[in-house]
Every structure is written in C-alpha cells, then in structure tokens.
Amino acid sequence: MDSVFSHQAFAKELGGLPFELIGDFERKMVTDYGVRREDSPGYSGVGRRSIFIIDHDGIIRWTWVTSPEQRLPDYDQVLEQAKVIAAGAPD
After folding, report:
1. Domain encompassing residue 86
2. Are residues 56 and 22 in the same domain?
3. Residue 90: what pLDDT?
4. Are 40 and 69 part of one and the same domain?
5. Same domain, yes or no, for 41 and 57?
6. What is the DSSP string of 15-28?
7. How many angstroms separate the Cα of 11 from the Cα of each of 4, 5, 8, 57?
8. Tens digit of each residue's pLDDT (9 = 90 or more) over 63-83
9. C-alpha to C-alpha distances, 69 to 51, 55, 73, 75, 88, nearest whole angstrom
10. Is the pLDDT of residue 89 over 70?
11. pLDDT, position 15
12. pLDDT at 34
C-alpha cells in the first residue's frame, strides 16, 4: 500500500531488486488477497503484513500472513520457499 516512490527508495536502499514492487492505493489487492484489516479502529482498509510467493505462471505457491502468535515471518523460510519455487521444484 506504500507509494511507488517509497518502493523505489526501498529497492534502491537494498541495491536493487530482481522483481517489481506493487502499490495498492485503491486497496483492491488487500481485499482480493484476503488480508484487508477491518478488525481494529484506525486500521480499517490497511493490509495485514503478508507475503505471497507467486510463480512464473502467476499462481500463488506460498503464503504467510501475520498473526498474534507470529508478528514477523521466518525470513530464512521465506527465502528457502522462494528459491524452491523459482527453481520450479514441487511444493
């Protein structure tokens, strides 16, 4: 939901990214992906922290969504899943 300019600055700070970051000003994606918050005043329409790994065919192959038990993802697991999916290996 961050601006395109924010995404560009983030990617530049990381030395570039091999993929595009997507902005969601109209909050369509957070609704379509089922991660739109409506459970807390002040957060209405904001997306939950989430990660979707999508393959070359546009199919969601792996998902992580924040929860009270796990506020941040296991980044090693995210990277491993991304590598497996990028290599075309089965889930």
Report:
1. 49-91
2. no
3. 58
4. no
5. no
6. T--SS-----TT-H
7. 10, 10, 5, 24
8. 999 998 999 999 999 999 999
9. 16, 28, 11, 16, 31
10. no
11. 92
12. 94
